[in-house]
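Severity: low
Component: inverse-folding endpoint
Summary: output formatting inconsistent between runs
Steps to reproduce: submit the following structure tokens with default settings.
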């Protein structure tokens, strides 16, 4: 990947992921985090048990990415960063019309991907 592309990918990722490494780590340990998302095979999660969702797995990868220096990021890391950015942008566009999103599956799913839509 060209340096300009890497810089753009990094910039878009750091804009999309607004949770710190420690915030995301704490979040991923909650039942709410484990209760949302799609498991391998396309099955929707409706409870904290029953295997890890794709978003929760991605959250663990994001924690690793946030712990790396920009100069240490690999092409595989850049690919994951693009995947995260794409997910966050697509999911933000699907904001539910309900007033209270604080405890919504929509917010919880975004938080698994490192973005808290309520964070200022």
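Observed output (run 2 of 3):
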């Amino acid at each position: 990947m060209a340096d300009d592309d890497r810089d753009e990918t990094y910039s878009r990722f750091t804009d999309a992921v607004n949770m710190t490494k420690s915030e995301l780590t704490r979040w991923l340990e909650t039942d709410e985090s484990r209760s949302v998302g799609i498991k391998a095979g396309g099955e929707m999660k409706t409870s904290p048990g029953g295997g890890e969702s794709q978003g929760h797995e991605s959250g663990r990868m994001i924690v690793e990415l946030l712990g790396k220096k920009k100069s240490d990021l690999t092409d595989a890391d850049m690919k994951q960063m693009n995947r995260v950015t794409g997910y966050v942008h697509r999911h933000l566009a699907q904001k539910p019309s309900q007033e209270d999103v604080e405890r919504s599956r929509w917010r919880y799913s975004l938080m698994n991907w490192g973005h808290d839509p309520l964070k200022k």
